[in-house]
Amino acid sequence: MDISPNKMVGQTWIGESWHASCISAARYFQKKQQEALEQGDEAAAEQYKWWGISHLLETQHPDTGKPKRIVPDAEAARLRAAEDERKQAEQDAEHLAVLKKKLGITPRTNGSAYRPYRGGLPTLGKDR
């Protein structure tokens, strides 16, 4: 179950500003948890506890539990764009495979044997 507010849980890196935001939010929810416990509201305290934990989990590697590598925001934007481009290429390839299957297009065994017609409009025997 993904309890993270951000969908970048699988990343091994985190941007500086997002890291600071996550730590700040975790501290805020710890403070709210303490206030709820002092008021005797156990349900709210439990909710604040899990919200704080979800923000702290965002700063850790999902498999090892070690802190993520903190990168400058410009580098994070570049890494995010590269990841988005890779995902889009995968989706495009899957979509193309589905379309080829639907249309019955199969790859030829010798790709160089097929040469599409490269000329203009056929003349139908007329001299130009």
Task: Describe the model.
This protein is about 55% helix and about 5% strand. It is mainly α. It has a two-stranded parallel sheet. The termini are far apart. Residues about 1-5 have low confidence and may be disordered.
What is this structure, in a nutshell?
With 128 residues, the chain is mainly α. Helices cover 55% and strands 5% of the residues.
Task: Report the average pLDDT across residues.
Answer: 82
Radius of gyration: 27 Å
Tell me, briefly, the overall form. elongated
Structural class: mainly alpha
Task: Bin the strand percentage.
Answer: under 5%
Ends distance: 70 Å
Which descriptors apply to this entry?
single chain, about 130 residues, mainly alpha, two-stranded parallel ribbon, 3 helices, 2 strands, elongated, disordered N terminus
Describe the secondary-structure layout.
Elements: E1 13-15, H1 16-39, H2 42-57, E2 69-71, H3 73-103
Parallel strand pairs: 1-2
